[in-house]
Design brief:
The protein is built from seven helices and 18 strands. Strands 1, 2, 3, 4, 5, 6, 7, 10, 11, 13 and 16 form an eleven-stranded mixed sheet that branches. Strands 8-18-17-14-15 form a five-stranded mixed sheet, with no helix packed on it. It has a two-stranded antiparallel sheet with strand order 9-12. It folds into two domains: about 55 residues, no CATH class; about 210 residues, Fumarylacetoacetase-like, C-terminal domain (Fumarylacetoacetate hydrolase, domain 2, Alpha-Beta Complex). Helix 3 runs antiparallel to helix 4. By secondary structure, the chain is α+β, with helices and mostly antiparallel strands.
């Protein structure tokens, strides 16, 4: 089952039909004791609504914070080491990749999250910007993973590479985080065979494309969630991006007007365009 947040309310999709969920907030759904069962009852007892319009779909988030994990794929480790070697930070990322403790960092409050069809931004003071396609966990206040969405962790690689201590500026700014188009609600972990794909279109042509699978991710998603919740309390739950295994070549940087299409098997496709001044 999939949850959609729209201008008209919250809907659950089950078996190809959409059912509106009345009288409940997104935060209440994330904190629900047995969300999968509850949504199944909504779908069983309600009349189907019509199709959802793409322009009405909003970011699938309430008041949750968004956090992120880094260096969870070998490809990401290599890219981070390469971009920061002149600043002397290359070995940091090798040690993080091999360490028991993961790299976790704050990414966005809900008001800075961009939904499907909206504009993500590149920093005006950055010269090397890339999207990072990531499986994003939806986590209950208790720390249990209840669902998954598609995430885009926009990153300024030149700022991060200049000094590892600049990571917050490279990662956290207006329009730097996109989520959507829905949340896949599942009591099970995503299969390791699930694919992640990205296409970046420029003037209608594919400028970059890449793909990977969750099998390439070194960290267990529940372990990442457990580390996040060790000393942090999230009364409304949280979202956790799990890192990227797709890195464009060093010669690539995003341009205003580019379209970013990120697809994760079983969830859907998140589409955004790029704007420096959105």
């Amino acid at each position: 089952m999939k949850l959609f947040r729209t201008r008209q309310g919250i809907y659950v999709e089950d078996g190809g039909s959409y059912f509106q969920i009345p009288g409940v907030t997104w935060d209440e759904l994330v904190a629900h004791d047995d969300l999968h069962k509850y949504l199944g009852e909504i779908a069983r007892l309600s009349n189907p609504a019509g199709e959802l319009r793409a322009e009405d779909i909003e970011a699938p988030i309430g008041s949750q914070e968004v956090w992120a994990a880094g260096v969870t794929y070998y490809r990401s480790r290599n890219a981070r080491m390469e971009e920061s070697k002149e600043a002397g930070g290359g070995s940091f990322y090798d040690r993080v990749y091999s360490a028991e403790r993961p790299e976790l960092f704050f990414k966005a409050v809900a008001s800075r999250v961009v939904g499907p069809g909206r504009a993500v931004r590149i920093r005006r003071d950055a010269k090397w910007s890339v999207p990072e396609p990531e499986l994003t966990l939806v986590i209950k206040p208790s720390g249990k993973i209840i669902g998954y969405t598609v995430g885009n962790d926009m990153s300024s690689r030149d700022i991060e590479g200049e000094n590892p201590l600049y990571l917050p500026q490279a990662k956290v700014y207006d329009g730097s985080c996109a989520l959507g188009p829905c949340v896949l609600i599942s009591p099970d972990l995503m299969p390791s065979s699930a694919g992640i794909q990205i296409e970046i279109l420029r003037a209608g042509q594919v400028e970059f494309a890449g793909k990977t699978t969750l099998a390439e991710m070194k960290r267990n998603p529940q372990v990442l969630a457990d580390y996040l919740y060790r000393e942090c309390t999230f009364s409304a739950g949280s979202y956790l991006m799990t890192g990227t295994g797709i890195i464009p070549p060093d010669s690539f940087t995003l341009h205003c007007g580019d379209q970013i299409r990120i697809t994760i098997d079983g969830i859907g496709t998140l589409i955004n365009h790029v704007d420096a001044n959105a």
